[in-house]
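Quick one - inputs below.
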Amino acid sequence: MGRPPCCDKIGIKKGPWTPEEDIILVSYIQEHGPGNWRSVPTNTGLLRCSKSCRLRWTNYLRPGIKRGNFTPHEEGMIIHLQALLGNKWASIASYLPQRTDNDIKNYWNTHLKKKLNKSESEERSISENMALQTSAARNAINHRSTYASSTENISRLLEGWMRASPKSSTADFLDQKLQNRTNDHMDHHNQFPYEQLQGSWEEGHSKRINGDDDQGFGVPKKISVNNVSGDHEDGDDDHDHNTPPLTFIEKWLLEETSNGGQMEEMSHLMELSNML
DNA sequence: AAGGGTCACAACCGCTTTTAG
DNA sequence: GCTAAAAGCGGTTGTGACCCT
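Output:
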């Protein structure tokens, strides 16, 4: 038959995680690595279901997560990607490696949706006067162009994003937290393998970006069909080693930045994305 | 200062897909 | 190949913080 049940539902704790629970979970993952979530509650004694442990790790405790305000660049990326991919938050998050899908989803629901609705209605009132086309695709394109022309030096930001070592605020925070709370127990700077965890995670991300991961996200793969050929054959070995090749969307963002608009190309892209 | 409204975000719920037995 | 649990994902909710009157 199937697998044994992961955890019985009786006695499962719900609600916000306490710092103590966080420490237990992080310590366990430090030792055993992420994965095999079924065994986490049993082995740690946490009164949480495996699902809750996984979510807590991926959305909050995982190293490399950037918290706090979204940069205009990130905001623009999300708007772009949402217009292209829809509410595929996990796929969108794969292009923003320091943000979680949950974070992006929350930011979209609380900030960007309202923002776009507002500007959309403003645009609609203008377009009524000017008798412009008001198809959703064109609206989306206009939003993107506004974004692109208003953000400063996106290509630099993107480059920074691609190269940034996610020595994260989360890691620092946890380091600090662990140090504060369990000062007597361990030497965190030596024992906490953030670099290892980050490394494996980055590798995974890089694979996804490159489309090498057979079990990776479907959407970027689809997009890679349209990928500009020659990305990998540009001959810059250092680039290949240090930064993943640019995907279709990343290239597009860079090009848009340098060319401030490209409405026709965008229309074409929207048509393409609608076909996918 | 107090109370009501709004916002932001962590966490949960439920559905779908993947995988182990 | 089938079944059932694990894992993944998107939608929704609960709650604390903040703002306004």
